[in-house]
């Protein structure tokens, strides 16, 4: 498309005058005015094009503007643009059926929400009503959303300002060998100690008071820490022993991101409740939900579920999900994420790690990878301190600016850059992205010891 700086300037001016942005000091941001997007790329009004290694906020698993999904939304809008949640509606029924067919075990009933945080709120409510208990255990190094319960369950600094309503929330440490909270020397030790820590946390909280344990199957924003073998099964056993509901949050890890339909498939574990959003329809229309096991569905078979949303299972969102899931099946999107993740992303990232002293650790699976950037490879000291802002964060800001200058849009959180392109990404696009990343990492290298 032709550059159109004048329109870009008007879009930006109206944004600056009237749009109040998430998580931001409003006067200190400079949002890029986006003119359009296609596949793995988006572009501005000045004629700059970016390869999106962040998939928006890790949600465009099938890339931007997939023609079949766009057409399905248009068709649904013409047929039945909206309808109240108490009715049986074709798009909603079909979306629920297709999701339930893919979720593990007996997670066969779907409660629809508008996004991930509402999914977490409702999963927690279901667990509390089901067990008659109140406490919920969640991990440090996690993100579960920014509504009341979801933000209190979140284990990152974004929670601090909302830390006044955490009734019943108890946090624990999940395994992460590279920055081990357990002084472990290997994965087996980390796993064993993390499980012992969880179990003693439960003992001291009172097992009869614990309604649920919630974990991201693979923590996403907190750093893509794939759990050690046996950990999630261990948590499953602990939950079974004490009658605690096991909630897996697959809002980011689900729908192809991990190279499987759900990350839980990788670890052969079935939770009692599973939250999803993002990739379910690539974010074309807001949608999330909770997949519910038979046991918990039974609780609400004869007794009303005390929760609901005006737009639960919105027809446009559900039609987008149906089309997205069909596209993923037809085009082998999950297989593409698994294959290119193993054959291209992992070896390329390990090559970058060899060349760049700022890369402390490479970790991930499928199309879900993180580079942990460090000042010092020996001590693992992060390139910038935890929760750094302003001048202290300058090394990460310089790295990000260098990537963007080379046409790569990175996903950056604290001292990490994540490699999370659409699951439809091609090998050529990946190589283009790694060439840009290679150059940008030289900027990070300047800040190593
Ligand atoms: N849970 C996880 C694991 C997430 O990554 C996110 C968002 O990034 C959420 C929940 C919250 O989802 P939403 O922003 O759609 O409310």
Walkthrough of the structure:
With 449 residues, this protein is α/β, with parallel strands linked by helices. The protein has 2 domains: 172 residues, Aspartate Aminotransferase, domain 1, CATH 3.90.1150.10; 264 residues, Aspartate Aminotransferase, domain 2 (3-Layer(aba) Sandwich), CATH 3.40.640.10. Helices cover 40% and strands 17% of the residues. It contains 14 helices and 16 strands. Helix 3 runs antiparallel to helix 11, helix 7 runs parallel beside helix 8 and helix 13 packs antiparallel against helix 14. The chain is globular. It starts with a helix and ends with a helix. The model has no long low-confidence stretch (mean pLDDT 97). The structure holds pyridoxal-5'-phosphate. The site of pyridoxal-5'-phosphate has 16 residues, from helix 5.
Level of helix content?
25-40%
Low-confidence stretches: none
**Taking strands numbered 1, 2, ... along the chain, how are they ordered across the largest sheet?**
4-10-9-8-7-5-6
Top-tier CATH class of the largest domain: Alpha Beta
Radius of gyration: 22 Å
Q: Major β-sheet, in short? A: 7 strands, mixed
Average of the residue pLDDT scores: 97
Number of domains: 2
Q: Any idea what the CATH superfamily of the largest domain is called?
A: Type I PLP-dependent aspartate aminotransferase-like (Major domain)
Strand percentage lies at 15-25%
- The count of β-strands is 16
Shape label: globular
The number of helical elements comes to 14
Structural class: alpha/beta
Terminal-residue CA separation: 45 Å
CATH topology description of the largest domain: Aspartate Aminotransferase, domain 2
Second-tier CATH architecture of the largest domain: 3-Layer(aba) Sandwich
